[in-house]
Amino acid sequence: MTLLLGMGWGALGVLVIAVGAIFGVWWERKVSARIQMRLGPQQIGPAGSLQMIADVPKLLFREDIIPARADRTLFKLAPLIVFAPIAIAMVVIPFTSGWAPMDMSVGVLFFLAVPSIESIALLISAWASHNTLSTLGGLRGAAQLISYEVPRSLSVLPLVLLAGSLRPLDIAQRWEWWWFPLTLVAFVVFFIASLAEMNRGPFDMPEDESELVAGYFADYSGMRWAIFMMAEYGAMIVASLFAATTFLGGGWPLSGAAGTVLMVVKAVALVTVIMWVKWTLPRVRPDQLMSFCWKILTPLALIQLVVVGVVLIWL
Amino acid sequence: MNAEELKDRLCAQYPDLCESLSIESGRATLVVAAQDLHACAADLKDMGFDFLEMLTALDWGDEFELVYLLRSHEMAVSMFAKCRVLRDAPRVASLVDVWPAANWHEREVFDLFGISFDGHPDLRRLLLPEDWSGHPLRKDYEDERIVRRPDYI
Amino acid sequence: MPHDLTVNIGPSHPSTHGVCNLLVELDGEVIVSAEPRIGNLHRGIEKIAENRTYMQVIPLTDRLDYVGSMYSNWAYCRAVEQLAGIAVPERAEYIRVMMCELQRIGSHMMALGPAGSDAGATSVYMYTFAQRDLVLDLFEAVCGARLTYNYVRPGGVSLDLPDGWVEQCRAFISQLPGAMLELDRLLFGNVIARARMKGIGVLSREDAIACGTSGPVARGSGVDFDLRRDDPFSVYPRLEFSVPLGDNGDCYDRARVHLFECIESCKIIAQALDQIEPGPVRNDDVPRLIAPPAGDTYAHVESARGSLGVYLVSDGSVRPYRMKVRSPAFSNLSVLPLLAKGHLLSDLVIILGSLDPVFGEVDR
Q: Strand B27-33 to strand B77-86: parallel, antiparallel, or no bridges (unpaired)?
């Protein structure tokens, strides 16, 4: 029964991410246009908002090219493995103060663990493409994902300590406003580590456009390529929703339906910041990325953990 | 420094070069025999010509003429060095060890004129594909794609 | 040294600045060797020129450095003028200087934009292209073309400045220094861009000279060499400007030299606009079919990429016996294997971009 329910919510997650990605692409085109002194899409629908409805059929009807020397099975499998964990991770997010699609006692752990399956998918797609640039991208991606798991997980622990529970619902319900200033450093660490997790700029070297062309998904086309893009937007949306519900207190100070709307607004604001960062900053180099992770983010997250622990004892 | 001063200075320093020096189109021009090219280049480099600006060749029928454009940043002057080689034995010493800049230039001349440079570390075709036959900038090179435009007035 | 991966970058790749093929041997992500394999855009322009009359060659020179056509036009026309003894009216010389300084700005925008986007900051490209577009508007007003101008002719320029051009140009150069300083903060002030560009691809002053580099690449390494000042031509001796130099010879200095050169170009244009006087722009005595006396000549200009020269040999006929283009991009690119060795693959595109090659000119 739980399995069926989970599958149902997972399917709904896929739908939410698909719709979110369509909106996200339009939003990103508008945000980046604003940053780059352009207008962005503006012909179809108000402010070009229906542009993606024209683009999706185009992607669906694109020829699906599989390179001759690719490993066909793995090549077809990879986009699904990229996409699925993100949709699955969505089910533990508490959308209102008392309700999450799946109420799990280890929800936070689940949320942190499931998206790391993506690193396997990156390696699979990179290997299956039989392309040196893709291979490099996949290897970079895997190294990056595994490294950034550490500060990302550590940065959520202060909240777990404060709430005394691994249930996202408990964190959302017990959230108080002074948690935010107390866990601000953890929030920043989580935000940066999430950027790296979802391969967004300035940490997008697995899909580095200027040297690896598109990295691990360079050889994908049509809808398979679109699934990779959707997964990227999905990761963005899921991470923003999670941050909005835990670090930013979900619907606080509102509650009920208004609270849910406010939570979504907070998430959209986070997504916008992610885009803003990407379109402003240059990309860091792989070795700089690693030293940033291990020498700055991880110690920061640990210090934050100790600070929260001390505060809890003092309380 | 202008070309006249440079000519006088070169004459003073290397008296045996004097008769092969002239001034053509505003630049001191030194004509060198192929066998003296490397020694002469090393001398010129010691004099301060640290910058090989250009190297090219000309096809004069039975002879090729190599044209080196040298520049001295210190003296702010440039000069030509010209060297003729026979078409039947188009070989000349490589100057890569004197001016590393000669590397690609010599490969280009080898590619387009078929002149070999002895001592070049990596003498391969540069601009044309490796399996190309012939040397296009020779005057006897034939290709139906070369169209001689009429002189429209 | 062992290596485990050979990667082909290009010829169709977003960051090779044209159709360049780089054969890169990697040890992990560290470059063991990077060999540029050029010639993908070789059209044999030097051979084609031998079969055209002197006038018919000018459009070919447009296709050499297609980001800075004015320079190749000018270098070639100077060679023809020297060979055939053609005088150039003073107004035409001023117009040529202004066009070429505008071209320098336009071309440097094509160096600065990719300097950002190679490092991942794509927005920088849009800011530089906004400026480049204004330059192209000025060119379009003057000759109708935005890329291949065919504007400089032996004995002058093809057309005089149209009405309102001077005002349009003044408006452009008055806003440019501010925009350049904004760009300086946006790109060179960014902490990630500094980390990506500083200390990367260091070209020592000795190597810069020995390997034949010129222009911003050499000046980024501290080689104080600018043909406009050191081997003056046209009306440059009457104009005051300084030559910006780099200290370290890394990608950061090379890219930043471009930025300051644009500000210097503004000063040159402003002075030229003040000094220019009405008069003819073309020597009417130049025949349509030029047949210079037999001989050879070399004429150079300081292009956006460095010392651009045309070596022209005449046998007395109406066609050049030989035309050789001394291409600065060709010599500048030849230092790439030296610079790339030992750096990471991610640095390669930044190093290549900092050399600012234009493959129309490299391959000819």
A: parallel
Q: What is the pTM of this model?
A: 0.85
Query: Within a 10 A sphere around the Cβ of C174, how many other Cβ atoms?
Result: 11
Q: Which of A201, A210, A281 sits opposite C14 (nearest CB)?
A: A210
CA distance C363 to C42: 5
Phi, psi (rounded to 5 degrees) for A24? -60, -40
The answer to whether A35 touches A280, Cβ cutoff 8 Å, is: yes
Rounded CA-CA distance A109/A105 in Å is 9
Cα A42 from Cα C55, distance rounded (Å): 47
Query: What are the boundaries of each domain within chain C?
Result: 53-110+121-327
pLDDT in tens, chain C (364 residues): 455 788 888 787 877 777 888 888 888 788 888 888 888 888 888 888 888 888 888 888 988 888 888 889 999 999 999 888 888 898 999 999 999 899 999 999 988 888 888 888 888 888 898 899 999 999 999 988 888 888 898 888 888 889 889 999 999 999 999 989 888 888 888 888 888 888 888 888 888 888 889 889 999 898 888 888 888 888 888 888 888 988 888 889 998 899 999 999 999 999 999 988 888 888 888 888 888 888 888 988 989 888 899 999 998 888 889 899 999 999 899 899 988 888 888 888 888 888 888 888 888 8
Contact B127 C38 (CB under 8 A): yes
CA-based nearest distance C187→chain A, Å: 8
C-alpha–C-alpha distance, residues A155 and A187, integer Å: 7
Residues 6+ apart with CB under 8 A from A198: A232, A235, A236, A239
> Residues 313..332 of C with a Cβ closer than 8 Å to B: which?
313, 318-319, 321-322, 324, 326, 330-331
Q: Is the ipTM of this complex over 0.95?
A: no
Indicate the fold that domain C53-110+121-327 takes in CATH: Cytochrome-c3 Hydrogenase; chain B (1.10.645)
Find out whether A204 and A283 touch, Cβ atoms under 8 Å.
yes
